Amino acid sequence: MPGSARTLSVSDTHTTTGDTVRTLATTVAAATVCALTACGSTTDPTTDPTPRYATPSATDPLVARARAHGTVRVTVVLDIAWQPESGLTAAQISRQRTAIADAEDTLLAQLSPYRYHLVSRSRTEPRLTLDADAPATTHLRHSALVATLTPTP
């Protein structure tokens, strides 16, 4: 369902390699379904060049700042389940890092129609720093993959 919250957990423990592979495949499939339905679209966001939110919001100060300066530096926290690695097993850390990388890659693919520059990305936390133009910032504001979007000095 578009707009509904979706979280993926990496806290499950599996005893066999086959179970781990099936769980990882299910997690990736669930993340893909989440990404495909987040904007109410059945098209693949990695191949659909249609900008979903190309018109900047006139009332959003972050979008206005991007419009005035060409780009704005933002920190994006992704809306995925996450736990500090200190409380996880090695297998859970690996699954969590894979989920983070997949979510980051999905969001960056959705941004491909826009002008942005990836400043940094985290392997261990669901966080990116980007320089984004006004349409990219608007897309980030409306993306179901984004939990928070804040300006970075």
Features:
153 residues; alpha+beta
Q: From the alpha carbons, calculate the radius of gyration and give it in angstroms.
A: 16 Å
Task: State the order of secondary-structure elements, H for helix, E for strand.
Answer: HHEHEEHE
Largest sheet: 4 strands, antiparallel
Which class best fits the helix and strand makeup? alpha+beta
Identify the overall geometry.
elongated
Number of helices: 4
* Widest sheet: strand ordering: 2-3-1-4
Q: Report the β-strand fraction as a percent range.
A: 15-25%
Low-confidence stretches: 1-56
Number of strands: 4
Bin the helical content.
25-40%
Structural domain tally: 1
Arithmetic mean of pLDDT: 75
Distance between the first and last residues' Cα: 35 Å
Topology at a glance:
Blueprint: H1 17-38, H2 61-69, E1 72-78, H3 90-110, E2 116-121, E3 127-132, H4 134-142, E4 146-151
Antiparallel strand pairs: 1-3, 1-4, 2-3
Helix pairs in contact: 1-3, 2-4
Describe the structure.
There is one protein chain. By secondary structure, the protein is of the alpha+beta class. The protein has one domain (17-151). It has helices at residues 17-38, 61-69, 90-110, 134-142; strands at residues 72-78, 116-121, 127-132, 146-151. A four-stranded antiparallel beta sheet has the order 2-3-1-4. The protein is elongated, with a radius of gyration of 16 Å.
Entry summary:
The chain is α+β, with helices and mostly antiparallel strands.
